[in-house]
Design goal:
heterodimer, A: alpha/beta, 2-enoyl-CoA Hydratase, Chain A, domain 1, 7-stranded mixed β-sheet, 22 strands, 48% helix, globular, B: alpha+beta, OB fold (Dihydrolipoamide Acetyltransferase, E2P), 2 domains, 16 strands
Chain lengths: 747, 217
């Protein structure tokens, strides 16, 4: 009887699960199966054990058929529901069933700084040549089950991500691989110190050059939260998981322009989930992941013990593969691995003898491969309009520039620098000796031939007085004969401002309270840089509609027409008081400054150019609304890709500065912008991770109106200063000189 | 027995029971053409949100030099009067355009009674007032009811005709119990700005509050 009861419970669980996954209790003929189940359950005391067993068997067969059918017709939203099911396996199940032993680090269960992020030192063993070989790994991942009440749904807070980073560093110190498990719908959108975006940026920045193999696997990959621990050498994904730029509900609300508080129609959410291409198969096609790990029908659950063996096998194999690629002696093992991969077999004896310890050369190779991997990511989502000849000419130009700058800086400049250093030391030494001898005589001579004060050298602020604004440019906003009210008029008693004065003479700044009204990006091009110094490059790289979203195609065409440009990023060489810089500028007019594959590629190329030409790199963010959701995960992968470019540029000695203006939110701030050591903001701008509506929707709590203000960003240490727009040029020049030093490319 | 102990609570409370409303007149803040968005009898919302950052109902729009200035309601209640004759016409600054009838809450009744009980410090002139920097920083640091003032202290900065003049407190020493003005808002001459409570009268103030809390539903 006990066995019968167990089977009945399991049947009931399966019926409910199908209903949950398909989002309706009457999908297929599941309701009639449920009714029959009820009949069988009620007859438990009327029927014999054999009769009951037979009836349950019939139900089980029917359910198996229904599950197959449900699996065949899985939609994007079905996958989201599978992942969100409480029956789905979670990190704790993996730690218990995949690893031999583990110790949780940085807190345990609810007594943890952030229980949604679990870090554990674990051992994993494999049978190689009949012997058990045990190796250590650092397991880092999100946990949403096993104590749901304190797991925060797997949404890590900044301190949870910081904990992850801390133990990644431990793994680096100890030289053990990292296994990263992504089970998060997204990061918790709080600006409490250091801010969600800042911490994610720090994590990605560190992971780009972390000197250990990193293997990640995605079950629920929600945008920035996933990237915080997802920048890896090998990216796996569970076949029934999802990896997305935004939750389908959030995406539908934005695309359908649904007002806050209104219910989003279910069909809209369903179609958005399809358009976002969130499934494992879609992501494999887009090359944002490397391999899919097959799950049982309708996804694995907590008691699918056979599946945990598969996870163990896949994680060990992926680690082996990454490590093996760095080894010089690997041909036969590589071949064997490929052979085993093709047979799809797995088991305890399916492993190959690969030691996970790496020497310096192998580590360098590992980092180089990681760099190349991310450099290629997302290139599906852009197109260039150069044509074959244009491409060829560009490549020749690029190569020749590279050689020119290599000779100029690496060979001549470095040689010259060394000679200068030696000469400086020699003259300093000799002057110290001569000073003792000639000092008294020089003193007497000086007394008799004293001159008035020497001439003062011009300070950088004096330079600006020569040319504060480009007088030839007036904002078109000034061409209106009307007044405007300052938003601070109630608190600060500001008088109405006459528009031609405001946007002309006052540079868009309220003369009473200093509030900065938004200005078009052209104003900055004209007033920030030296006259006629701007030389744009890569203007022909064009944004695309890589996921073939029908509505987005028209919006994209409208953006091309409206702006006369091909993307939301302008990259150019320019000068600020004679200092040559490479600038990457995100501007609001084109899709609200969102970042997709094109913008990511342009940014990376700008960073490479700055590195090649030994120039400072400036990111001026006129506005950015985050990652372009219509590009799905191709957009999300721009976060690690661009951060990798920044890291390599900074490691090579470059000076990278970011200046935020108007509104800067989400993915870019949580990656390649937020990782800069030198970030500034223009007054009245807002900087943050998630906008007010997202915060209200996610946390259910309202935020103060000044939550994202530049002043708060300064208080929590996100930015280093707030600049007045009218002093932008002076401050930028001053910062370039202060932060960059004499050579501006300081190592 | 002091003046404050002699307040006739019964008379004051019965007055509030008879007409438990306050009437907020809305005036044109400057000249312009007005266009109403509400009618008499409409229910209107004041500022809402945890931080009182969500604007209230749009009452009307004043267009001046092609600048449309929306006037939002700051008090919850009912529109009891609208000067309909002005709709679409040019109004002068300061002209009364509508009245909002606001049902008084227990807290507001306490505030109104406190005005009678506390020692008021009135606006010396029609002007905008700000707390003096020292007082403001003490309020921010310790909270309003922990800041004491004595005669001769610089209490306010009066902003009038582009001139900022310090205003010194004159009266009994005590704590700033209530603030009746919004910083930067123009206040009429003689309007109370703050209510000062001498330390020995705290007991009387508490008595008033307890009584209203107990007697008012």
């Amino acid at each position: 009887m006990q066995e019968i009861r167990k089977r009945l419970t399991k049947v009931e669980e399966r019926i409910n699960y199908i209903g949950q996954v398909k989002g309706s209790a009457d999908w297929g003929n599941i309701d009639s199966v449920a009714q029959r189940f009820k009949g069988v359950q009620d007859a438990i005391f009327d029927l014999s054990a054999e009769q009951m067993a037979e009836k349950i068997h019939n139900l089980e067969e029917e359910l198996a058929f229904l599950e197959e059918r449900a699996e065949e017709s899985l939609t994007g939203m079905d996958r989201v529901r599978i992942v969100r099911s409480p029956l789905r396996f979670s990190l704790k199940d993996i730690l218990e069933n995949v690893y031999e032993d583990y110790t949780e680090l940085g807190g345990e269960e609810e007594d943890s700084i952030d229980a949604s992020m679990v870090c554990a030192k674990a051992t994993v063993s494999a049978i190689i040549k009949g012997k058990t070989v045990t190796q250590q790994v650092m397991v880092i991942g999100h946990e949403k089950g096993h104590g749901e009440e304190y797991r925060n749904g797997g949404c890590s807070k900044p301190w949870g991500n910081e904990k992850a980073l801390r133990f990644m560093m431990v793994a680096q110190t100890e030289g053990i691989p990292i296994h990263s498990y992504i089970f998060t719908p997204g990061s918790f959108p709080t600006e409490d110190y250091p801010g969600a975006g800042q911490q994610i940026a720090r994590n990605i920045y560190a992971m780009t050059k972390l000197e250990v193999p990193i293997i990640s696997i995605i079950s629920e990959g929600g945008s920035g939260g996933a990237e915080a621990i997802g920048c890896s050498d090998y990216r796996l994904m569970f076949s029934h998981g999802y990896y997305s730029v935004i939750s389908p509900e959030g995406g539908a609300a934005i695309e359908g322009k649904v007002r806050e508080g209104e219910k989003i129609p279910a069909e809209m959410v369903e179609s958005c989930a399809e358009r976002l291409k969130i499934s494992a198969a879609d992501n494999l096609r887009l090359k944002t992941i490397d391999r899919v790990v097959d799950e049982p029908v309708l996804g694995a659950k907590r008691d699918d013990f056979e599946f945990f063996k598969r996870i163990k096998y896949e994680m060990i194999r992926a680690t082996d593969e990454v490590v093996l690629k760095t080894k010089s002696l690997r041909a036969f093992r590589n071949y064997e691995m490929k052979l085993k991969r093709s047979t799809k077999e797995f088991g305890d004896d399916a492993h190959i003898d690969v030691s996970w310890e790496l020497n310096r050369d192998e580590l360098a190779r590992l980092l180089d491969m990681r760099s190349k991997k991310y450099r290629q990511m997302g290139c599906e989502g852009l197109c260039t309009k150069d044509g074959i000849l244009g491409c060829l000419a560009n490549r020749v130009k690029e190569k020749s520039s590279k050689y020119f700058y290599n000779i100029r800086y690496d060979l001549l400049h470095s040689h010259q620098k060394q000679v200068k250093q030696v000469m400086h030391d020699v003259t300093s030494e000799s002057s110290a000796v001569i000073k003792h001898v000639t000092g008294p005589l020089a003193g007497i001579f000086g007394f008799f031939t004293r001159k008035p004060d020497t001439e003062r050298l011009p300070a950088s602020r004096d330079l600006d007085r020569e040319e504060l604004y480009d007088n030839t440019y007036t904002s078109p906003l000034a061409n209106e004969d009307r007044t405007i009210t300052c938003p601070n008029s109630e608190q600060s008693g500001c008088k109405d401002l006459w528009v031609p004065d405001l946007y002309g003479q006052f540079g868009g700044v309220c003369e009473n309270c200093g509030h900065h009204f938004p200005l078009e990006y052209q104003w900055y091009l004209k007033n920030l840089f030296d006259r006629d110094s701007i030389r744009e490059f890569n203007s022909k790289i064009s944004a695309r509609n890589p996921l073939d979203s029908p509505a987005f195609e028209k919006r994209l065409q409208d953006a091309f027409k409206k702006t006369g440009r091909r993307s939301a990023m302008i990259t150019f060489d320019a000068r600020v008081h004679g200092v040559e810089v490479v600038v990457a500028m995100l501007y609001s007019n084109f899709r609200n400054g969102t970042v997709g594959a094109t913008e990511g590629e342009k940014f990376v190329q700008a960073a490479e150019r700055a590195r090649m030409m030994r120039r400072p790199l400036l990111s001026y963010v006129h506005t950015t609304g985050g990652i372009r959701i219509q590009e799905g995960t191709l957009g999300v992968t721009q976060m690690p890709k661009c951060t990798m470019a920044v890291r390599e540029y900074v490691d090579a000695g470059g000076l990278y500065m970011v200046v935020y203006d108007n509104n800067s939110y989400a993915g870019p701030v949580a990656s390649f912008l937020g990782c800069s050591y030198y970030q500034f903001a223009i007054r009245s701008s807002r900087v943050g991770f998630a906008g007010p509506r997202v915060i209200r929707d996610t946390t259910g709590e309202d935020i103060p109106p000044d939550y994202h203000s530049a002043r708060n960003a300064l208080k929590r240490g996100h930015i280093q200063g707030i600049w007045d727009r009218r002093e932008f040029r002076t401050n930028l020049h001053k910062s370039l000189m202060t932060m960059g030093g004499k050579s501006l490319y300081y190592r | 027995m002091s003046q404050h102990d002699t307040v006739n609570y019964e008379a004051v409370l019965s007055k509030f029971r008879e007409d438990p409303f306050t009437y907020v007149d809305i005036h044109a803040m400057h000249t312009g053409q007005i266009r109403f968005h509400v009618h008499e009898g409409d229910q209107v919302e004041g500022l809402t949100g945890d931080f009182r950052h969500i604007k209230g109902t749009l009452l009307c729009e004043l267009t001046r030099e092609r600048n449309q200035k929306p006037i939002h309601c700051t008090t919850k209640g009912e529109v009891s009067f609208v000067n309909k004759d002005l709709d679409g016409k040019f109004v002068q600054a300061g002209e009364k355009i509508m009245t909002i009838r606001h049902p008084l809450k227990k807290r507001e009744i306490i505030e109104q009674i406190l005005r009678k009980v506390l020692v008021p410090f009135a606006a010396p002139e029609k002007a905008k007032y700000y707390f003096a920097m020292d007082i403001q920083s003490r309020i921010e640091k310790f909270g309003q009811r922990s800041v004491s003032v004595k005669a001769g202290d610089e209490l306010f900065t009066m902003s009038l005709m582009k001139r900022d003049t310090p205003v010194f407190y004159a009266g009994e020493s005590g704590l700033i119990h209530s603030v009746y003005f919004k910083q930067g808002q123009s206040m009429e001459q003689g309007e109370p700005l703050v209510g000062i409570c001498p330390p020995e009268k705290i007991a009387v103030v508490e008595k008033v509050i307890t009584r209203v809390k107990a007697e008012w539903e």
